[in-house]
């Protein structure tokens, strides 16, 4: 029996674990745009800490935290909750006791890893690891579904039948109906991959296009405020489609919002990294942007 796209979408949710953030494209764009905003001193420290990496740039390590699921499954499981925070529907005010029990959420993870990165008494290997976490998590917290609804696990349990001209990736083709060009997926995955992919640019060309718009004028604020903002976008911008169906016109409508989030993430990432990387060796500096 041929599966319908919507049935395939429900099968997709049953067979996959929660998604973990922007696609590699999105993470690379955030990291690249942030690195362009760092001082020469901070960039020199990036190069020193990442020496020996296959691609020793912020973009090159931006997806590392997701790749732990394959390269170090135990560590991937231990840090899985650091990639997101879930809010009760309609309430976007951060309550650490309610929303981040035990400190296991993206807000507290960014704070901890930024402090570790800024601590010059720590071994370089630990600081490099913290750098990779910070780069990834600041990207994640600006993907709206990473500060999403608790009841559907940030859109992972909200199934979508997506009619699109975009071709599926290797895994997605198992839930793709070529006849109707419809992809079975979920709302989290739509934001992870399809919204940015709809512009049709590679990550480097896309980063150049966003850089040409200038540095985003956004308040630096705090990780808690970033999560609250992402949550508010879900609540206020109509990110949940009626009828669990979307198409390319929906992706086009949502893309400017996603691009604004990428640009904001880059500014805030640079604001976290600059004092942590270029600060005095005698002191840790202030790692929380204002």
UniProtKB/TrEMBL annotation:
Keywords, in A-Z order: Disulfide bond, Endonuclease, Glycoprotein, Hydrolase, Metal-binding, Nuclease, Signal
Keyword presence, Cell cycle: no
Entry-linked SUPFAM superfamilies: Phospholipase C/P1 nuclease
CDD domains tied to this protein: S1-P1_nuclease
Secretion signal span: 1-21
InterPro entries in the cross-refs: PLipase_C/P1_nuclease_dom_sf (IPR008947), S1/P1nuclease (IPR003154)
Gene3D superfamilies reported for this sequence: P1 Nuclease
Protein name stated in the entry: S1/P1 nuclease
Originating species: Coralloluteibacterium thermophilum
The organism's taxonomic lineage, starting at the top: Bacteria, Pseudomonadati, Pseudomonadota, Gammaproteobacteria, Lysobacterales
């Amino acid at each position: 029996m041929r599966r319908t796209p919507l049935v395939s979408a429900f099968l997709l949710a049953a067979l996959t674990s929660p998604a973990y953030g922007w696609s590699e494209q999105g993470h690379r764009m955030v990291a690249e745009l942030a690195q362009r905003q760092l001082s020469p001193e901070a960039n020199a420290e990036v190069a020193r800490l990442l020496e020996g990496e296959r691609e020793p740039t912020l973009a090159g390590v931006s997806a590392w935290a997701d790749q732990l699921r394959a390269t170090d499954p135990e560590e991937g499981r231990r840090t899985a909750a650091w990639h997101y925070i879930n809010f009760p529907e309609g309430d976007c005010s951060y309550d650490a006791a309610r929303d981040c029990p035990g400190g296991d959420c993206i807000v507290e993870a960014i704070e901890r890893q930024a402090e570790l990165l800024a601590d010059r008494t720590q071994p370089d290997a630990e600081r490099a690891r913290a750098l990779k976490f910070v780069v990834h998590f600041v990207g994640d917290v600006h993907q709206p579904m990473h500060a999403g609804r608790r009841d559907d696990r940030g859109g992972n349990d909200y199934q979508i039948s997506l009619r699109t001209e975009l071709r599926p990736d290797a895994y997605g083709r198992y839930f793709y109906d070529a006849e109707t060009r419809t992809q079975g997926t979920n709302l989290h995955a739509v934001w992870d991959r399809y919204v940015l992919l709809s512009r049709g640019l590679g990550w480097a060309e896309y980063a150049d296009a966003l850089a040409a718009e200038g540095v985003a004028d956004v308040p630096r604020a705090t990780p808690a405020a970033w999560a609250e903002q992402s949550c508010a976008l879900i609540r206020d911008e109509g990110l949940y489609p009626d009828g669990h169906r979307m198409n390319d016109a929906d992706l086009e409508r949502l893309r400017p919002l996603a691009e604004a989030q990428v640009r904001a993430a880059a500014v805030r990432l640079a604001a976290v990294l600059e004092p942590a990387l270029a600060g005095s060796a005698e002191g840790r500096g202030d790692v929380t942007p204002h």
